[in-house]
C-alpha cells in the first residue's frame, strides 16, 4: 500500500512539473507550484520526514506563492513568447543530467541499510542526542546543535536575499500622507467585507500558532524557519486585505529591517560567547552549569534568531515587490494625468488662437 501511495504521489509530481513547464499563464503556474508544494509535503510525510514536510508546506505551498503573485503583478500575467529555440541550453541540461545520473551509480541504493549514513552518522544521532543535547526532537538537535554552523550559513543566505531585494527594489524614502479621502475609505471597507472580518479574527490565532511552532520545536515538528514563515504570512495577509499603506503604518519598515539584522546577529553572538568561553564555536555546553541546560538555552536563542530573520526578510521582500508595483502604477497615472493636462492646454490654446483670428478677421471686414 505504501508503494502505491509513493507511485501515485510521484506521478502527480511529474505531471504537475510538466504542466508548469508547458503553461504560459503565470498565474496558473503559481497555482500549480503551490499544488506541487503540497504534494511534496505529502510525500515527505509518507517518508516520515514530518519536519521537512512542515517546512515545504509553509514555504513551498505558502509564502512562495504569495511572493510570486506579488512578482507577476510587476512582470505581467502572460509569459513572453520565445524568440529562439535554446537548443544549446537543452544539450547542456541533457549532458549535465547524464553525468549526474552516472555519478549516482556508485552510490548505495536508496534506503539501503549498508549505506554509510545508516552505519555511522544516523546511529550516533539516534543513540546519543538525548544524552548530549536533551531534546526529544532529533531533527532539532541535528539542525540547531550538531549542524548549527550550517544552519547559520542558511540564515545568512536568507538575510543576504533580503538585502539584495532591498538594493534592487527599494524606493527612495519620501514623505507621503497616508490619509485617504472618505470615499476611498468607504470603498475599501465595502470591498470583501466578509473576508476582511474573518481574516481579522484569524490573524491573531495565526500569530499565536507561529509562536507555538517557534517554541515547541524542541518537542515536535517546528522551529524558527517554519515559525518565521507563518508569522510573515499573517502580516502579508493583513497587507493584502487592508492595503500596503495601512500595513506600513502598523508595521514600521525600519524596525522590520532592524529585526532581520538582529536575528542573524543573535545567532552569531551565541557562537561568539561559546568561543570566548574557551570551547568551539556554537558549543552550547558552556552557556549554563549543566551542559544539557546550556544546549537548551543555546537552541532557544538561535531558533529565536532564525525566526526573527526569516519573518522579517519575507515581509521585506513582499513589501518591496508590492511597493514597486504601486510606484509604477502611480507613475503611470501621473504620466497619464500630465498628458491629459497637456492635451487640454493645447486644445485651449488652439481655441484661443482661433477666436483671436476670428475677431481679427471681423475687424478687417468692418
TrEMBL record:
GO cellular component: plasma membrane
Domain MrpA C-terminal/MbhD: 12-75
Subcellular location: Cell membrane
Residues in MrpA C-terminal/MbhE domain copies: 113-170
Ranges where the record places region Disordered: 332-366
Membrane topology: Multi-pass membrane protein
Pfam hit, one: MnhB
Classification via InterPro entries: CPA3_antiporter_subunitB, MnhB, MrpA_C/MbhD, MrpA_C/MbhE
Family named by the database record: Belongs to the CPA3 antiporters (TC 2.A.63) subunit B family.
Designated name of the protein: DUF4040 domain-containing protein
Organism: Shewanella hanedai
Phylogenetic classification of the source organism: Bacteria, Pseudomonadati, Pseudomonadota, Gammaproteobacteria, Alteromonadales
